[in-house]
């Protein structure tokens, strides 16, 4: 029943084979979606080459550079999508960043520039990409972002990223309300801790993973594939009545009162 054949899906945030975005892209492709990939460009082109080699099995029909702090690059990326596809049905937002120093020290020591950077890349980028995608979602669409429990509860060392995720989750609700009349749904997935390039910047991430494995109802953490399956569901007609929601894919850890 989960069939995304004929759907055009742009996936952002793939850095390597541990990226949650990679797990999502694989499951969307498995469900039949036509995949587009964005990558964060660098001066030497290393990321472009690395991501291109990784996603080659998905045969992406769109492959574009996308630095979400560059408005001109956002415009160019979505112009390319429009030229090649004509429309977009699915947008996957897997973008988050905070300076490492702001994820290991005290929260009161967060720098002004670090605070602004974290919210710009991790929160505002969803708003900006939704605005760019909206004109191309001519037949409605599904937008999915990634969040974490640290946006609603205090997690050691998560610091400014917790503020960014709280803003991201509220953005999901405002965007869902605004874009709903255009049949565009916006939802978030709050995934359990997974060892990725982004999470490695959080102090004590391995301790966090081991703790979840020890106390979560399923006595384990989750995989990229499991998050990808939930994303595919949210992008399909099976979830056609859902918008503005945050779904927890964390082996049940979120329900615990004393963890």
Structure summary:
The protein is built from 7 helices and 7 strands; from the N terminus they run βαβαβαβαβαβααβ.
Task: Provide the fold topology.
Layout: E1 8-11, H1 20-30, E2 34-39, H2 46-55, E3 62-65, H3 71-85, E4 90-93, H4 112-133, E5 141-147, H5 159-179, E6 184-191, H6 205-215, H7 224-234, E7 246-249
Parallel strand pairs: 1-2, 1-4, 2-3, 4-5, 5-6, 6-7
Task: State the CATH class.
Answer: Alpha Beta
Please state the structural category.
alpha/beta
Q: Give me the number of helical elements.
A: 7
Q: What is the name of the CATH superfamily?
A: NAD(P)-binding Rossmann-like Domain
In whole angstroms, the N-to-C terminal distance is 37 Å
> Low-confidence stretches at least 5 residues in length (pLDDT < 50)?
none
CATH topology: Rossmann fold
Estimate the mean pLDDT confidence. 95
- How much helix, percentage-wise, in residues? 25-40%
Number of domains: 1
Largest sheet: 7 strands, parallel
C-alpha Rg, in Å? 17 Å
Q: Which CATH architecture is right?
A: 3-Layer(aba) Sandwich
Total strand segments: 7
Strand content: 5-15%
> H/E series, N to C?
EHEHEHEHEHEHHE
For the biggest β-sheet, the strand order reads: 3-2-1-4-5-6-7
Summarize this structure as a short list of keywords or feature phrases.
259 residues, alpha/beta, Rossmann fold, 7-stranded parallel β-sheet, 39% helix
């Amino acid at each position: 029943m989960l069939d995304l054949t004929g759907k055009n899906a742009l996936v952002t945030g793939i850095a390597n084979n541990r990226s949650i975005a990679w797990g999502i892209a694989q499951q969307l492709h498995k469900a039949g979606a036509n995949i587009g990939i964005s990558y964060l460009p660098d001066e030497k082109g290393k990321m472009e080459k690395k991501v291109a080699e990784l996603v080659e099995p998905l045969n992406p029909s769109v492959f574009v550079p996308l630095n979400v702090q560059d408005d001109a690059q956002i415009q160019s990326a979505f112009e390319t999508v429009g030229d090649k596809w004509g429309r977009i049905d699915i947008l996957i937002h897997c973008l988050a960043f905070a300076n490492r120093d702001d994820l290991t020290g005290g929260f009161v020591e967060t720098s002004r520039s670090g605070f602004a950077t974290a919210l710009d890349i991790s929160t505002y980028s969803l708003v900006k990409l939704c605005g760019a995608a909206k004109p191309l979602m001519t037949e409605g669409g599904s937008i999915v972002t990634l969040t974490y429990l640290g946006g609603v509860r205090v997690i050691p060392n998560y610091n400014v990223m917790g503020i960014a995720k709280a803003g991201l989750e509220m953005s999901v609700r405002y965007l869902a309300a605004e874009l709903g009349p255009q049949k565009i749904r916006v939802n978030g997935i709050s995934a359990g801790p997974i060892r990725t390039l982004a999470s490695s910047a959080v102090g004590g991430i391995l301790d966090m993973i081991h703790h979840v494995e020890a106390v979560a109802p399923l006595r384990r953490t989750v995989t990229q594939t499991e998050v990808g399956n939930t994303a595919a569901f949210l992008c399909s007609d099976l979830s056609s009545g859902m918008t503005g929601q945050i779904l927890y894919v964390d082996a049940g850890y979120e329900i615990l009162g004393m963890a």
